[in-house]
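Exercise 7.
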Amino acid sequence: MDYVNHKLIKPKSLQSRSYQQTILATATKKNTLCILPTGLGKTNIAIMLAAHVLEKNQDSRVLFLAPTRPLVQQHYKSFGRFMNIPAGEMQIIMGTMKPHEREKLYDKTIVFATPQSVLNDIEAGRLLLDGFGLLIIDEIHHAVGRYAYPQIAKTFNEQSGGRVLGLTASPGEDREKIMDICRNCGIEEVEIRTEKGEDVMPYLKEKEIAWVGVELPESFKKIAGILEKAYQKKLERLRRMGYIRSPRISKKMLLKLQAELSSSIKNGSNKAFGGISVTAQAIKVEHALVLIETQGIGVLEKYWKKMRSGTKADRRLASEMEVSNAMWLTHELFEAGSKHPKIGKLCSLISEQLAKNSDSKIIVFANYRDSVNEIVSALSCVDNAKPVEFVGQREGMTQKEQTKRLDDFRSGKYNIIVCTSVGEEGIDIPAMDMAFFYEPVPSAIRSIQRRGRVGRAKIGRIIMLITKNTRDEAYYWAAKNKEKRMHKTIYGIKHGFGGLG
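Solution. The predicted structure, written as tokens, is:
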């Protein structure tokens, strides 16, 4: 095995891979967007580039940005493990620190920080970026809109003129969004590798990917049918009002319409109030449809409970005949203990896996916190299963609790981790033998990130649970098609990267 040989990298600590060296060569010359599947060492490229920049200019500093506090800490630990730099010269900076405390810490050689705290310090005049020779932006696909990344990158490029390295497993399939990311961060070159690339395949283990279909019970279909009727009524009303014309309407289209109507109201249009009310109702009914088809009775029952005790508009929607009937049928099934068939299938498949290999490490992804709770409860009854939930800080789990859960998982206290989207993006969850998608996600970014959790150190299996003839199937194909478009778009941008214009 070959190792990276550099005075600022600890001897025989960092494996040398040809594709990483190729990307590094580009990144030393141009501001680079590095698109690399999870587990193939994006952080290692950042470490090597940091070593190169710091060796070239000993007075230079490195600023490493990551979107969450756990990710910031994770990168700090990775750099500490590989870089031959005193621990006192590496510093974590977060918004939980008082501003005057942060100001004194930016003179360290390598600074790891959350973006909003850095932007706040720039805007308050507490931080100049002229002393930094390298800006590393993790999960750079966030660098759009009003997120802090674009403004920090703009300031860095104006004040420093140093290198920018952007890291992501998947920037999305929309060409204009990818170009926005590049423009926003001053990117001059794109380096992309996929799991099928010849130079990365030797470092990836096989992944067995399969989808398992389940049938929606008739009692669930009855509720779905009532909700579909209510949903179509809302859409028809929006058509009569002149707000929609397309025969097929997606949730994305409704959310866009809602934003447009909200903007009209801010500009003084009283007419838009009626439209935005019906649009909001349509979105809520469509969400209930998603829950009954893809999640289950318990999750839908909680949704109805929140609606009944919600705003005046929520209570008015709840009193409508179709919605009220759906609520009543949901409650009947909930009282009878009905579960979505995915729950039984998941428990059966995990039981089989643990019977074959009791040392298996398994991850289950689910979209909703309530589904996570239901899954953990059901898996607790499976022989040899030791499940634990893992959710984001916005969903009620503190950073300290997250760290402890992962430590307990690594130690063997748990063998199944059930998580929301927090488990998809970057956090150092150990490589898994098996991953379950409780539902497909219609996002290429999230789908790629989920898959990256297996096949990193050994052959892994990925199983998607799909309710037949429902939105699950539509989401599965949407993600698949978006991923194809993403690769085509990125390669097109890479090969025609003569300027961003």
